[in-house]
Design brief:
Layout lengths: L5 E6 L3 H10 L3 E6 L11 E4 L4 E4 L5 E2 L3 H10 L5 E4 L3 E6 L2 E6 L5 H11 L5 H15 L11 H7 L4 H16 L8 H12 L3 H4 L1 E4 L3 H4 L3 H5 L5 E3 L8 E3 L2 E4 L2 E3 L1 E4 L3 H7 L12 E11 L8 E3 L7 E4 H4 L7 E7 L3 H4 L3 H16 L5 E14 L3 H6 L10 E3 L12 H20 L1
Parallel strand pairs: 1-2, 1-14, 2-10, 14-20
Antiparallel strand pairs: 3-4, 5-9, 6-9, 7-8, 11-12, 12-13, 15-18, 15-19, 16-17, 17-18
This protein binds flavin-adenine dinucleotide (FAD).
Length: about 425
């Protein structure tokens, strides 16, 4: 007689839920409950009705240090869909002209240093102070917890306003979706040590060359075997417990992995003796637009002075059959942007684009995507509120990107927590 497998419910089929499911699929009976009709969660694909093009809900950038997320993609077959940029080649627009963070010889941490040395916008003193700061971070000789926020950290470590604006702010705001004057220095330290100041493979930028729908399309066929199931369009309203088992939508489970954002998890778990502190959230606003003229050949441009953060060149990133040109701008920490009407956002964006590229282009069509609860605000206060993956209720795990792991809200943070929850369950089985 075979040993009966543990039965596990996973709530949510975002990156965290998919990772937990893949780790558990051979050892347990896994049921996934997903509120929508597809996997991916906040990394999702939508159809723009006017252009009939498939677009994402915003540009996602990964770095080589994304171990858990890439392991998930290797298993479901999405790993070949990336442009890998090992060297720095990032044009930026600052005080009316283009500059560039470029490394021609090195990649990884030495590439970052090379890019700083090459940048003619920085003085000798600025370059020296930036290199000294990077070395101090690497040698672990800065007590990050002693600084109130990243701005405090940078200024007290002799980073000029110009270096903060051109180099650190784009990096911090885009990875943490949090303004420099709020961003947690400890989370920043982890990003630097695991990513940008790490070995070349970890620091490389990975830009998807397909939409998320395509990246994750292998999930169902890999996961759905034996008794494993995925229930789409099945939002879970609440979970209760009876004789040590969890009741989810009329079925009993030995373990439950919750991967929904914290404000939804709090609601779902309101009948169990657990309190989830909901952090502040931070919006990301993306504008997809199409032009009659090519604007750039670069993959991405940092709009240091602009009202938006980054311009991405969709023609360079993905394969498009259309004869128009297509771009996407992203603004993180977009509290101000998110409240504005579409036409106001468009005219602000157009004004910035004209400063960068002149008047010779026409925007033929645009689509604005507002993600109001894109990520938690990665400041010191919210970082302290994050729950552990393993809760005090035996068999209940909190595994979305918000649970404590030292990273901001990212695909890797989400995947890492899904992996952790799964391995707590596997350990119980092994006992
Ligand atoms: C515009 C944007 C840009 C981003 N850019 C980057 C980037 O460049 N790099 C990066 O690493 N990260 C980026 N992120 C963050 C990244 O997308 C998230 O951290 C990650 O996708 C979170 O995954 P998750 O599985 O924890 O949560 P989610 O993706 O939120 O998954 C939760 C799932 O639960 C489902 N659900 C909700 N309620 C219920 C319910 N009641 N019952 C059942 N299911 C339910 C949801 O539909 C969803 O599928 C970005 C996010 C956004 C929004």
């Amino acid at each position: 007689m075979g040993i009966q497998k543990r039965k596990v419910a996973i709530i949510g089929a975002g990156v965290s839920g998919m990772t937990a499911a893949i780790e558990l699929m051979d050892s347990c009976v896994v049921h996934i409950y997903e509120a929508t009709d597809s996997v991916g969660g906040r990394a999702t694909t939508i159809e723009d009705k006017t252009s009939q093009e498939i677009i994402d809900n915003g540009q996602h950038i990964c770095i080589g240090a994304y171990k858990h997320f890439f392991d998930l993609l290797k298993t479901i077959g999405g790993m070949e869909h990336f442009h890998i940029l090992e060297k720095y080649d990032i044009p930026y627009f600052y005080e009316g002209t283009f500059g560039s963070l470029t490394s021609k010889i090195f990649s990884g941490k030495f590439g970052l240093l090379e890019a700083i040395i090459r940048d003619s916008n920085f003085s000798f003193k600025e370059k020296l102070n930036t290199i000294i700061f990077a070395i101090k971070v690497q040698m672990d000789s800065i007590s990050f917890q002693n600084y109130s926020d990243c701005y405090d950290l940078l200024i007290r470590n002799k980073q000029s306003e110009k270096v903060i604006k051109i180099l650190w702010e784009p990096l911090i705001v885009s990875t943490m979706n949090t303004p420099v004057r709020k961003a947690s220095p400890i989370i920043f330290e982890n990003i630097m040590l695991d990513g940008f100041l790490s070995k070349s493979q970890n620091a490389a930028f990975y830009l998807p060359n397909v939409h998320f729908g395509e990246l994750f399309k292998g999930f169902d066929s890999v996961f759905l075997k034996e008794e494993n199931k995925i229930f789409y369009n099945s939002p879970v309203k609440s979970i209760t417990q009876n004789s040590g088992k969890f009741l989810v939508s009329d079925e009993y489970y030995d373990d439950v992995v919750i991967t929904t954002p914290s404000f939804i998890s709090k609601r779902i778990l309101s009948e169990l003796p657990i309190d989830i502190e909901v952090p502040d959230y931070s919006p990301i606003v993306s504008v997809y637009f199409w032009t009659d003229t090519k604007l750039t050949d670069s993959f991405m441009i940092s709009a240091v002075d602009g009202g938006f953060d980054w311009l991405f060149n969709r023609d360079k990133l993905i394969e498009r059959s259309d004869d128009t040109y297509s771009y996407q701008i992203t603004t993180s920490d977009a509290v101000h942007f998110a409240k504005l009407k579409d036409d106001v956002i468009l005219s602000m964006m157009e004004e910035d684009l004209r400063k960068m590229f002149g008047d010779e282009f026409r925007i033929t069509h645009y689509k604005i995507v507002r993600e109001l609860m894109a990520t938690f605000l990665a400041d010191k206060k919210n970082n302290l509120k994050r729950p552990k993956v393993k809760t005090h209720i035996s068999g209940l795990y909190l595994a979305g990107d918000y649970s404590d792991n030292g990273y901001p809200s990212t695909l890797e943070g989400a995947s890492k927590n899904g992996f952790r929850a799964a391995h707590y369950i596997l350990k119980r089985i092994a006992k």
